[in-house]
Amino acid sequence: MPGCFEILMERGFIKQCSDEGQIKKMLNNESVIFYAGFDPTGNSLHIGHSVPLFAMAHLQKAGHSPIALIGGGTARIGDPSGKTEMRKMLSVETIQQNAESLRKQISRFIDLSDKNAMVVDNADWLAGLNYIEFLRDIGKHFSVNKMLSFESVKLRMETGLSFIEFNYQLLQSYDFLVLFQKYGCALQIGGDDQWGNIVSGIDLIRRIEGKQAYAVTFPLITRSDGKKMGKTEKGALYLDPQLVTPYEFYQYWINVADADVGMFLKLFTFLPMDEIEKLSQLKDKEINEAKKVLAYEITKIIHGKEFAEEAQNASEALFSNKGKSGDADAVTISITHEEFLMHNNIVSLFKLAGLCSSMGEARRLVEQGGAYINGKRYDDINKNVEKKELENKTLLLRAGKKRFCKIIVE
Q1: Given 24, 49, 303, 343, the catalytic residue
Q2: Which of these, 185, 224, 244, 392, could form a disulfide with 33 (CB 3.0-4.6 Å)?
Q3: How far from the centroid of its chain's Cα atoms is residue 286's Cα?
Q4: 3-state DSSP assignment of residue 138
Q5: Is 46 designated active site?
Q6: Are 303 and 249 in contact (CB under 8 A)?
Q7: Catalytic residue among 228, 234, 305, 322
């Protein structure tokens, strides 16, 4: 049976290790306290953030103790890594609200009922720092020449790097030191663009404590065409259902390239490797079955089983005349573009689709929250559906949980 290190390796999580031999020994034979950081610069994580979260879940299942660090302090500055320009400054109140949202999303991956798992906020030790003392005690251990040599800093030097952002590396390194001193945290994990920041923390721990800490970074996930994954027409693939509905989230995975299915199954599901290998070997039209498994599994993890099943039903109804459940029939009607413009009000559409017998019934359906278009619920009777909301000239209307109508606009 493969050890924890081998599990991470075969699933494609590991890009760089500070000491592969020692890290392998630790993860396979010891109980390690480790951490990953998430800055609340927005009110939702996106799919790229879930790579370390899935890794944290694998590590926790193997008996290791996770610390999810929410950067309520560092978010006040902004990490320049992977960015071409300075982040917008957020108010402390906004950062605190974002932090609470992120905490809820993180709890979908990490079992916080485990006494050895925790979520911490670095504002607890960064917000009250005395600047002069910090420079004397911490800043003296950093070489500007070395900081400038890291790729994340060099890239920003071309477009401009503010002094406040330049300090970010010191603060992240200090986070590692605090967690090492307070909890015995000896391993930091994160995206490969964090490598410079993480190894600076290792160096700081060595200089101050005279002890060794470790780093593991993950590859920045790209699609088979070389483009950054997790981008939709509307922007990033967020985990918040208010930003990307479970249906839209599910459909993203249904539409991934055939060549990416195996990689995504390894990274974004907890399915056994033997099952993943079988699904990855499917070809041509059969690969669509693997995409359905991928879409359902990751939607279930992010949004819960009920929403995953609803999204699956809606998707099946959109692309066939019958949903997955026996009574989820989807009637299909075709209308002209002129008819669409005449009936694009949500109330009129549900009446036209035959999902309501009268305008009054359609109005009540909308007001009571039972009207869905392309997986998104609407409760405003004045909502007009725009042409840009059509998916391949198609709208999927749902009344309640299981009544569908597919409208094709010719």
Answers
A1: 49
A2: 185
A3: 27
A4: coil
A5: yes
A6: yes
A7: 228
